[in-house]
Design a protein that fits this description.
By secondary structure, this protein is mostly beta strands. It has a domain of 215 residues: Methylamine Dehydrogenase, Chain H, CATH 2.130.10. The protein is built from two helices and 33 strands.
Length: 421
């Protein structure tokens, strides 16, 4: 693979992760803009200016681009041209305050927009005592289907409850969202918006302290949640983050769960296996879902599950270090891995793409690298240095097989096979 193109904005901005469809790559940013870039040439196709910062990338569905903005609205554009189709204010009233240097609604739509079977879901709000608005809209017309404005004040005396502190996912008949400091992942009825209560075990919230903004679904049965805090700096050493996996079958409120891994970087997975990095200075490793199911069935969820028990799969070292075999044997490799830090992971049918940082000694500038790894063996297939700090989670593999890497200043790099797009 070689570098196909590089897009650079005239002014740096804090970007979102990328999305892609229809020959375009989409990114948004804290400069209130959504951009569409030609996936073959890297040329800017169109720009849309919203009324507030956009911190989640557009969701693409049937030729439309859906996104939430700090102005309190869900916006819908024609994806090919950027032309506005409709917008809906989820914020209860028009009121603006300063939020981390930008003028925003008291109820910014920072959840992103999830579209499923013709319904667009989004959540607005920052702090629960100001209220939280979770909404479902007709994805074609923008007509309101339901809205829950009560879950921010579950405790009416303290005015505490769910705060919109993450992205959305759904499973079965429930919509799920990370719920901030008080409520673990919150769930809502897809048909009515009714709040379903929090996860508990033994009479107490089991994952009470996991406040990460990422949430997703494994094999229609397991909920994975964790990562970095919603409003935190890229370099956040106070809360290192972790990811937990919850079995939602049966009694989901008291079901079993395990700590999957440490760190703020979301794992990547397909129908049968999962790739993850266990926190700072650790190498990526791949595990089958069978191993996770065994641990959920009989493992100790209160301890570090990555101990070698009932775990199978391959592992790999960063860059060109020699392979040491199965890392679950307990051999301490930290001395070899101390300089390497995974920044992003993505999975294709036959390979894993990793962006990582190499910390240099004695105050030297960090080095940033993207490479592809064989999905079956973990061997390095291709590697390319990057010219600036990469955005955590800012990695995309397009349908055509191109690798898109977003940098922290809004620069977008595209790498493609020779002769490819």
């Amino acid at each position: 693979m070689t570098q196909s193109w590089r897009f650079t904005s005239r002014k740096p901005f804090k970007p979102t992760a990328p999305t892609a469809a229809g020959g375009l790559v989409f990114i948004a940013g804290d400069d209130c803009k959504v951009r569409a870039i030609d996936a073959k040439t890297g040329l800017l196709k169109w720009t849309f200016l919203a009324g507030g910062p956009v911190i989640q990338p557009p969701t693409l569905w049937r030729g439309r681009a859906y996104f939430g903005s700090g102005d309190g609205y869900v916006h819908v554009l024609e994806a090919a041209t950027g032309g506005p189709l409709w917008r809906f204010r989820i914020a209860p009233v028009e009121r603006k305050i300063m939020v981390y240097g930008s003028l925003c609604s008291t109820w910014p739509v920072n959840s992103g927009v999830l579209v499923n079977e013709g319904v667009a879901y989004a959540a607005a709000g920052i702090i629960d005592y100001d209220g939280t608005c979770v909404s479902a809209l007709d994805a074609i017309t923008g007509k309101l289907k339901w809205q829950n404005t009560n879950s921010g004040h579950l405790d009416k005396e303290l005015r505490k409850g769910v705060s919109a502190q993450g992205v959305l996912t759904l499973t079965g008949e429930r919509l799920w969202m990370p719920g901030g400091n008080v409520v673990p992942p919150a769930s809502y009825d897809l048909a009515t918006g009714k709040y379903h209560g929090q996860l508990v075990a033994g009479g107490r919230p089991r994952y009470f302290i996991n406040r990460g903004q990422e949430i997703g679904l494994l094999n229609e049965r397991y909920l994975i949640q964790g990562g970095r805090l919603r409003f935190s700096a890229t370099e956040n050493v106070v809360n290192p983050g972790k990811f937990t996996v919850l079995d939602l079958s049966g009694d989901w409120q008291t079901g079993k769960g395990i700590q999957l891994c440490n760190g703020k970087i979301p794992p990547a997975w397909d129908e049968s296996q999962l790739v993850m990095a266990d926190g700072l200075y650790s190498k990526p490793a791949c595990y089958s879902f069978d191993a996770i199911e065994k641990l959920l069935a009989g493992g100790n969820p209160e301890s570090d599950w990555i101990s070698g028990k009932e775990v199978s799969g391959w592992s790999l070292t960063w860059n060109f270090l020699p392979r040491f075999g199965d890392w679950t044997t307990g051999k301490d490799l930290s001395v070899w891995l101390r300089e390497s830090d995974t920044v992003s992971l993505a999975m294709a049918r036959n390979a894993v793409v990793e962006v990582y940082r190499t910390r240099m000694a004695r105050g030297g500038s960090d080095r940033w690298t993207v490479h592809t790894l064989d999905l079956n063996s973990g061997d390095v297939i291709w590697e390319q240095p990057l010219n600036s700090p990469a955005l955590p989670g800012g990695l995309l593999i397009s349908r055509e097989g191109s690798v898109v890497v977003v940098m922290q200043d809004g620069t977008v790099n595209c790498f493609a096979a020779k002769g490819g797009s």
